[in-house]
Amino acid sequence: FAKTNGKNQLVVYNPAVHDNEKERQIAMSFREALQNNEFYLCYQPKYNVKEKRISCAEVLVRWNSPEFGFVPPSIFIPIAEKNGFITELTEWTLNEACRQMKEWRNKSHPLEKIAVNISAPMFLSHALHQTVTGILRKYRLDGRHLELEITETSIMENLDTAVKVIKRLQADHISIALDDFGTGVSSLTYLKKLPIHSLKIDKSFIDDVHTSPEGKALVEMIIHLAKLFHLHVVAEGVETEEQLQTLISLKCDEIQGYHISKPLQAHELDEFFKAFTAV
Ligand code: C2E
Ligand code: CA
Ligand code: CA
Ligand code: CA
């Protein structure tokens, strides 16, 4: 569509060009943003149904930019993946999350594990194992306190490499969760080959688990499948009590979503735990 600019000239607004330009600007400001501490981490609790407690939290990166305002990760992560900045950002995230975890461990915090998202290109790189173990060593943190969330698509890009990477990480007690399960590939045969710890059912399956019999049957099937492979099952994006109760009845192991808690900054998580154990 057309609009007038300040000089009263008619300009044609092209969303594609606009987006590309914005994307370029965002990509150019990443490094400085990292140096200026514009990125910070949030932690979203995962509730363990059987143990009735929260022992794990997912790490989610946030960017508050003085130039662009609050930029959601759904916007900047794909740009960072495209321009290669994702490696630096993930290293920073791993480092900051492990530093925080060490601080929590020193205070006997109930949180036992943090889960960090790893993008496909980074997961398949040979440097990942070294990067991760280097950071764990730096903070004298056991691999048992760290989980890496990876997507089906990143595994399927190169299954043999993925199996090797996972085995090396597992030798150091680092666990692997398969993220956004069900949204990627159609073949499930790869599950046989992967020594992973847990499977996260994507939010899109959880949305109608309590309202549609088909939706419920599908989640039930995924949970059965997971149990067949001795995997721990996590439901993401749980927003209501009805969804929670349905998932408990289906024997889902862990629940993550706004109904338990939104992603919280470290100090907010401390407050959350105080209130939660008081229940
Ligand atoms: P994801 O890994 O599937 O993360 C879950 C997303 O769902 C998060 O959005 C979280 O805030 C949101 N969420 C959690 N519970 C609920 C709920 O009950 N309802 C709704 N509507 N949403 C819920 P977020 O933080 O905006 O992150 C979006 C995506 O960005 C993530 O999806 C992940 O793929 C990516 N991402 C975030 N942080 C990182 C990171 O540090 N590294 C990498 N590689 N990717 C990241
Ligand atoms: Ca995730
Ligand atoms: Ca997810
Ligand atoms: Ca998801």
From TrEMBL:
Is Membrane among this UniProt entry's keywords?
yes
Sorted alphabetically, the keyword list is: Membrane, Transmembrane, Transmembrane helix
Q: Tell me where on the tree of life, at the top rank, the source sits.
A: Bacteria
Could you tell me which residue ranges the EAL domain spans?
A: 23-277
Name of the protein this chain belongs to: Phosphodiesterase
